[in-house]
């Protein structure tokens, strides 16, 4: 007998997880001036000529997650611009945009959308670009079944060495159970200390100083209920994660914060399944967590899982240096992308390197060269122009004999002939005068404060 499989439309399909994408939180000031409200929200900054958030959405779709809430701070016209983009987003995901108060931190944002979250959920920043296969992370999360999972990665050279970045944190991992048991910011002067209770509970801790927090987390649904009651938790990475980490070994903290009350609302699906099994005993799978007979530590209701990703590209565009790095990665040699679309007009004696990309309908005149750069759509570039290691957004006009190196040039900027710019950020609509020689500047129009 043949059974025909019913055809599912994606809006009927309930995915196992929901996703919350944080669009432009906290680091917009580190991207000053390129994500100013007049130019564009951080989520829409181009990486390889596609909005950076499209990489996140694509990654979530690969993970089989179709129900996505995009949270953005209500600054200027950012929510409208983002909604317009997402309405026409070609992927097979359903996004709702929620704008929250400008001063809301990340955990505040989760509280604001508490009624929209009805199952376990991922939190992911809009500027994370990674080659990590999402199924690797989700499968491990299912196996460990922790309260939360966190992703850490080994950053590329420019990210760990960039001058505007802090030192990488101390990350303590119990390698026997892949638990995240310690995380602290590092500063040049700080001494390093750990509690005995941590070492009693987790005797095999390795402390890493070469890992970056991707700020991608998977949480149990009950975490939201807890956040609703605990308004003092404002930031996910600064308040919530450190508290959950400590709850794994601090009995008093678990009691004080009444963690049991929240976690008991969640039935352990694995235990439930095993109790129904005819071949497995219900306590199997838990023997790695039996208490150490010498230190009768308590059994914490909190369990973490940390996924460490090395060997492939992973990065965030939350500083101008790392944003540049995302663009370099997106257009590096060997990537299968259309480098010069048929609508672009590139003069015959102009070179576009095979590590660069040109947008639709862009015109480049004679004897110019583009290396290690992304040039957007509808740009007009004159004769004998050199563009190296730069990001040029849409509708930029560049005059003859201009040299641009290591720059980010925002939409509608105008660079007059013979200007030379090195390591500059040029804001939306800015006009660079003829013959200007500028290095390391942030070029911003001073608008009258209203």
From TrEMBL:
Its main location: cytoplasm. Keywords: Cytoplasm, Initiation factor, Protein biosynthesis. It is found in: Cytoplasm, Cytosol. GO terms for cellular component: cytosol; eukaryotic translation initiation factor 2B complex. Residues 344-432 form the EIF2B subunit epsilon/gamma LbH domain. The keyword Hydrolase does not apply. GO terms for molecular function: guanyl-nucleotide exchange factor activity; translation initiation factor activity. GO terms for biological process: cytoplasmic translational initiation. Component of the translation initiation factor 2B (eIF2B) complex which is a heterodecamer of two sets of five different subunits: alpha, beta, gamma, delta and epsilon. Subunits alpha, beta and delta comprise a regulatory subcomplex and subunits epsilon and gamma comprise a catalytic subcomplex. Within the complex, the hexameric regulatory complex resides at the center, with the two heterodimeric catalytic subcomplexes bound on opposite sides. This is Translation initiation factor eIF2B subunit gamma. The lineage of its organism: Eukaryota, Fungi, Fungi incertae sedis, Mucoromycota, Mucoromycotina.
